[in-house]
Amino acid sequence: MSAEGGPAPVRAYIGLGSNLGDSIATLTAALADLAATPGILACQVSPWYRSAPVDAAGPDFINAAAALDTTLSPLELLDVLQAIELRHGRLRPYRHAPRTLDLDLLMHGDARLDTQRLTLPHPRMHERAFVLLPLRDLAPQLSLAQGNLDDLIAKRGDQAIDRLG
Which of 58, 103, 107, 114 is close enough to 13 for a disulfide, judged by CB 3.0 to 4.6 Å? Predict the structure, then answer.
């Protein structure tokens, strides 16, 4: 509990991506939506990255990660993320379809969940350079169950990704 009697804030990490439309404008607007959400107390964002789609065809993605301090539960935060995706035109016509906005809850404090709706930590983040590099920008000391970020990134050398700017 916090000093005010509500839940203590936890650090959550979000993966952001877009490969349709004006991706940077969409991602910037989504970050503003997140920062304005009650229960989100702070929001930091990594630099932008351009990456080729993994396990899919389509245009390159613009990716980033965000670190949030939040009092929202994992499922409450998931609801917020999905509502923001819908507001920005997210459609799900088929698995791995190109998208205007993709917001993935990667970690929520030390939460461990494995439900039909949400698995935490995100089960494939350690396999994706477009998640690992932005995460390292925000939290270089972060370790995942599969190893530290530097070692995991070194294993993803086959994935094309470039930092923008």
Answer: 107
Alpha helices per DSSP H over 3-128: 23-35, 74-87
Q: Is the pLDDT of residue 159 over 70?
A: yes
Range of the domain at 23: 10-159
pLDDT digits (tens, 9 = 90+) for 10-43: 999 999 999 999 999 999 999 999 999 999 999 9
90 is catalytic: yes
Residue 33 a catalytic site member = no
Q: Give yes or no: 104 in active site.
A: yes
User: For the whole model, what pTM was predicted?
Assistant: 0.92
Read off the CATH number of the domain in which 146 is found.
Answer: 3.30.70.560
The active-site residue, picked from 22, 102, 114, 124, is: 102
